[in-house]
Amino acid sequence: MVKRLLHPSHQHKWYEGLETDQLATAISDFFIGKLKKVKDAVALGLRDAVSLQVSSPPSQTPELFMSEFDAVDVTEVERIIQRLPVKTSPLDIIPTNIMKQCQTEFATAISNIANLSFRAGRFPANMKNGWVTPLLKKAGLDIADMKNFRPITNLSTVSKIVERLALSRLTIQ
């Protein structure tokens, strides 16, 4: 009951009535195969491009680079929280509308997470998890053909905020 109140779902589930275990396996196998093809194509392209002159990588490691980011300010995080759409990811423990109502408290915690992440030069591993949902590209397409699906990945709201904070430090304004 509490989960339904905090995380209401208004989406029509196209897969209702289907054998979900088999469908999940088929979709998973399809997208894993698709990623493998992309990986192989990139590897082949890189192998063929060996003769091209490539600039050397930067002398700094990513960890050192990120540690030079400006510190995150609580008001900066509050502004991001204010602009968040009122939709909640299935990975969120706390719904976005509650986060917006208590933005100062959450902004303090999130700014600390971001500053620790930037100093360490690493994005927290638990924030790299996503909830992948296969969606039909168009209503009425054949659900037996996996090419008719596109994967949508939902990340936690906190990870999106930390990502936006990092991006704002990478872009020249």
Blueprint (SSEs and pairs):
Blueprint: H1 2-6, H2 20-48, H3 62-66, H4 74-83, H5 96-101, H6 103-120, E1 130-136, E2 149-155, H7 157-170
Antiparallel strand pairs: 1-2
Structural summary, described in words:
This protein is mainly alpha-helical. It has seven helices and two strands; from the N terminus they run H-H-H-H-H-H-E-E-H. The chain has helices at 2-6, 20-48, 62-66, 74-83, 96-101, 103-120, 157-170; strands at residues 130-136, 149-155. The chain has a two-stranded antiparallel sheet with strand order 1-2. Helix 4 crosses helix 6 (103-120) and helix 6 (103-120) crosses helix 7 (157-170).
**What is the CA-atom radius of gyration, in angstroms?**
21 Å
Overall mean pLDDT stands at 83
Structural class: mainly alpha
Kindly give the count of domains. 2
Strand order of the largest sheet: 1-2
| Helical percentage | 40-55%
Inertia-based shape: flat
| Residue runs with pLDDT of under 50 for 5 or more positions | none
**Which range does the strand content fall in?**
5-15%
Helix count?
7
Largest sheet features: 2 strands, antiparallel
Order of helices and strands: HHHHHHEEH
